[in-house]
Amino acid sequence: MRPPRWGRTSSAHRPAAILTAAMLSAAACGGQTGQVHPSPTPIAAIATPTASPTQGPPPLRIFLIVMENRSYSQAIAGSYTAQLAAKYGVATRYRGITHPSLPNYLAMTSGSTWGVTDDGFHSLPAGGLGTQLTKAGIEWRAYMEGMGADCLRNGNGYALKHDPFPYYGSACPQQVVPFTQFATDMQGDVPQFVWITPNQCHSGHDCPTATADAWLADTVPTILATSAWQANGVLFITWDEGEDSANSVLTLVIRPHMVNHTSDRPYDHYSLLATIEDQFGLDYLGAAKDASAMSDLLATS
Question: Structural domain of residue 84, as residue ranges?
Answer without folding.
Answer: 11-297
